[in-house]
Design a protein that fits this description.
Blueprint (H helix, E strand, L loop, with lengths): L4 H7 L7 H11 L10 E5 L2 H5 L1 H5 L8 H11 L3 E4 L1 H7 L9 E4 L1 E2 L12 E2 L3 H6 L4 E6 L6 H17 L3 E6 L14 H13 L4 E4 L9 H9 L7 H10 L7 E5 L6 H13 L4 E3 L2 H4 L3 H16 L2
């Protein structure tokens, strides 16, 4: 299909990027059910590494086979499929060119309990090119005592990825000893995390849906002096998008832990109403039976298509 005005507008947000990167961003925006709308739904399957195969694929054991996830992303019309190195390698040749791929370059596990988390590099930009990926994914933990090391590592990877024509997608998940559990999804902290990812050069920023909780005393003072509507999730999503370069970066929101279908769709409606660019939905999709997953992802895409 011809490129749409909305996709042209989004591409214009990245005037410093080379044609290779813009081409791969175009592929992300012009693939699948949401092609041309400026919205995207990505299937991420890094949970096997992050949480273990039992917690991740025990509810739907078909998910132990990487082919299953490639096919789910393809058949549901997702814009892309994201996973760590080993998982992409198993099936990349079989599905070559059929769905845009994102290589998740850093990962961690839940076996160690640490106050200052930092994920390890588990892949490279060269791996992403070898596998035919459109981009790389990288997680930062704003709030961790090791955050500066993650920022520096991401900066080097971003320079290399952009030089080689790839898109950079940054998972920005606040956590660490300096934040309360509620603070990890507080509206002021999520907004800050999205802004940090954009400042580090991300083309696409991924954050969790923000709650109405305000974590930082400094933020409370600003909200009191300069009130911003934060009552609904749609209000808070709008605030996050606005604070990410005035909406000139693609901001998508994670699906989080598995929950009921109605809860998932209600959350997606709020994200769409708030001007979010899309969702990145893993466990809520692949832990369901295949038919149910396809139905859910289809409904999610229709919500974004109608806003």
């Amino acid at each position: 299909m011809p490129v749409t005005d909305r996709v042209k507008q989004i591409l214009s947000f990245y005037p410093s990027d080379n044609p290779g990167t813009l081409t791969n961003l175009y592929r992300l925006l012009m693939t699948g059910t949401l092609a041309g709308t400026g919205k995207m739904v990505i299937l991420p399957v890094d949970q096997g590494f992050e949480h273990g195969p039992l917690r991740s694929f025990g509810p739907n054991r078909d998910g132990n086979d990487p082919d299953y996830h490639y096919q789910l992303a393809l058949d549901s019309g997702c814009n892309a499929y994201a996973a760590p190195l080993g998982q992409l390698e198993v099936s990349a040749g079989k599905f070559a060119g059929q769905v845009p791929l994102i290589l998740k370059l850093n990962n961690s596990d839940t076996l160690a309990k640490v106050d200052q988390p930092c994920s390890a590099l588990t892949g490279s930009v060269e791996d992403a090119l070898r596998l035919g990926c459109v981009g790389i994914g990288y997680t930062i933990y704003p709030g961790s005592g090791q955050r500066n090391q993650m920022y520096q590592d991401l900066r080097e990877l971003t320079i290399e990825a952009k030089r080689k024509g790839l898109v950079v997608i940054t998972w920005s998940y606040p956590r660490g000893a300096g934040l309360s559990k509620a603070g990890e999804t507080a509206v002021d902290v999520c907004t800050y995390a999205a802004h940090i990812a954009a400042q580090l050069g991300a083309h696409v920023v991924k954050v969790k849906p923000p709650t109405a909780h305000v974590e930082l005393e400094e933020s409370k003072k600003v909200y009191e002096k300069h009130p911003i509507k934060l009552d609904t999730l749609a209000d808070r999503v709008r605030h996050v998008v606005e604070c990410t370069f005035g909406g000139k970066r693609v901001v998508i929101f994670s699906g989080g832990e598995a929950k009921g279908t109605e809860a998932v769709l209600d959350e997606v409606k709020q994200i769409a109403q708030g001007g979010g660019f899309g969702s990145i939905m893993g466990r809520n999709a692949f832990q369901r039976p295949r038919a149910d997953a396809l139905k859910l992802l289809g409904d999610v895409m229709q919500i974004f298509k109608s806003h």
